[in-house]
């Protein structure tokens, strides 16, 4: 059984993230989605608990997906969950240099036990980022092309409360 870790902040989860998750579930036996909280960053749009709730709701019918959280080194989370690799999504060449550095560090920190596998988002999702989705929402524009209807609904509700 090949188990992989797909880490990210997923704040919010975009259709690009979902595209990478779908690709990974087609390729591997089990995908562990790790919702990461960076202790050095201020809080995001959704709380960690809200992001967990959204992902669990969206993937409740997928038997080969687990949702976990983490705030330490991603490679440690991969090792703790017996993952052979870390999945990284690439939108384009601008992501490549950073991902090469990460994979080298993760391989070193894991004593060569954890590899990195990069998956490219399909072309219709390569321009989408969580940051752009939040900016479009704050401009009062439609985000339905960029996020699942559940995510859109939760974002609109949260925006009204703010």
Commentary on this structure:
- With about 160 residues, this protein is α/β, with parallel strands linked by helices.
- It has one domain: Rossmann fold, CATH 3.40.50.620.
- Helices cover about 45% and strands about 20% of the residues.
- The chain contains 6 helices and 5 strands.
- It has helices at about 15-25, 50-60, 75-80, 95-110, 130-140, 150-160, and strands spanning about 5-10, 30-35, 65-70, 85-90, 115-120.
- The chain has a 5-stranded parallel beta sheet, sandwiched between helices.
- Helix 4 links the parallel strand 4 and strand 5 (about 115-120).
- The longest helix has 17 residues, at about 95-110.
- The termini are far apart.
- The model has no long low-confidence stretch (mean pLDDT about 95).
CATH homologous superfamily grouping: HUPs
Shape: globular
What is the succession of H and E elements? EHEHEHEHEHH
Average per-residue pLDDT, rounded, comes to 93
Beta-strand content estimate: 15-25%
